[in-house]
Amino acid sequence: MNSNVFFESFDRFIRHRLRNVSEYGEKNATSELLKSSILVAFSGAFRIHLAFLLLQLQSNIFTCIAGGLVIYSVYTLDRALGSEEDTVNRKELSGSKKEIGLAASMLTFVIGSYILAKEGMLALAFIPFVTGFLYSKGINIGKFSLKLKGGLGVKNFVVGLTWGTFISGLAGSTCRNIIPIVLIFTFFGVKLFVNSTIYDFKDIKGDTLAGIKTLPVSLGIRNTRNFLLGVHMLSHLILGIALINGILAFEPMIILYSFICGLICIQSYTKSDDEEPPFRKFKRIILVDGESTSIIGLRTIAGALLV
Fold first, then answer.
1. Pair 128, 70: CB distance under 8 Å
2. Which of 102, 207, 228, 270 could make an SS bond with 212 (beta carbons 3.0 to 4.6 A apart)?
3. From the record, what ranges are coiled-coil (predicted)?
4. What is the DSSP letter of 120?
5. Does residue 295 belong to any structural domain of this protein?
6. What is the DSSP letter of 110?
């Protein structure tokens, strides 16, 4: 009798612990889902501020905040909807409560789009949101199917085109000259194209299993690295010429830091390592997603010292 009581108690204890561990893991994964896009959103907001600076316009803090909220919404939506390759590429989100992520995505989008609507730029909020949905899930109407994922470099092209349009559109809404806006679009479009491709290198395994033809998967590591170096150097050369000729604001620190940071990232993070050490991952996050934040910080410090 005592033996049966003991084993029954032990069984209840084990089931209780397993349930608690499962609930903890679910909460932790949900927390990761909600946190995973915060740095990207901050980075995007600062990129919009940088665009204002390069266009020689007064930066609008509300536009920057709204842009950051829309960016958070789009990336959280993508991670909440999930995809086949995410089971390999984002294991830390496994078991998360997707409905919470979807709710957070919709809430931030509504707030961001409301701010942009008051400034007459509501259409710009829907460009990345709709594109993000078409990329993540796509639409199916009868025999017609549209999904912006799977083709050679489509993912990276969509990222560059969407965010280049979004950033240059928000910052250049009051700019009367189209040439500076096109230059800003090119700069940030290429920058985000390169950054998204760099992240693809750590996702080669998951993308290959899912049949997604990213540039590293299709062209190979070396060819993709050389291609990224080429477009990175060309875009910064064009921007440097624009600065010298007064088409954009003379902000050499922004261009020089972006150029050096991009070179380091392309050389250091275009590898297909299965496991990324924590410190290396931290450096990649700072150099890629934290680049715009670093530029603003350095520019502020330099301005204070020169006064």
1. yes
2. 207
3. none
4. T
5. yes
6. H
The CATH number of residue 52's host domain is: 1.10.600
The radius of gyration of the chain's CA atoms, rounded to the nearest angstrom, is 22
Q: The tokens of 158 are what?
A: 């969509």
Alpha carbon distance 36, 269 (integer Å): 20
Query: Tens digits of per-residue pLDDT, 212-248?
Result: 777 888 888 889 999 999 999 999 999 999 999 999 9
Query: Does residue 20 sit within a domain?
Result: no
Kindly write down the DSSP assignment for every residue of 44-66, as one continuous string: HHHHHHHHHHHTT----HHHHHH
Per-residue H/E/C for 295-306:
HHHHHHHHHHHH
Tokens of 80: 């909440």
Write phi, then psi, for 237 (nearest 5 degrees): -65, -45
Among 43, 48, 77, smallest CA distance to 62 is for 48
Q: What is 137-170 written as a DSSP string?
A: T-EEETTEEE-S-SSTTHHHHHHHHHHHHHHHHH
Q: What is the mean pLDDT of residues 47-62?
A: 93
Asked if residue 18 belongs to a domain, the reply is no
Q: Which two tokens stand for residue 136?
A: 């993540």
* Number of domains forming the structure of the chain: 1
Calculate ∠ Cα 41-30-207, nearest 5°: 70
d(CA 157, CA 149): 10
11 within domain boundaries:
no
C-alpha atoms less than 13 angstroms from C-alpha of 252 in its C-beta half-sphere: 3
The total number of residues written for the chain in this structure: 307
CB 108 within 8 A of CB 70: yes
Contacts of 238 (CB under 8 A, 6+ apart): 183, 186
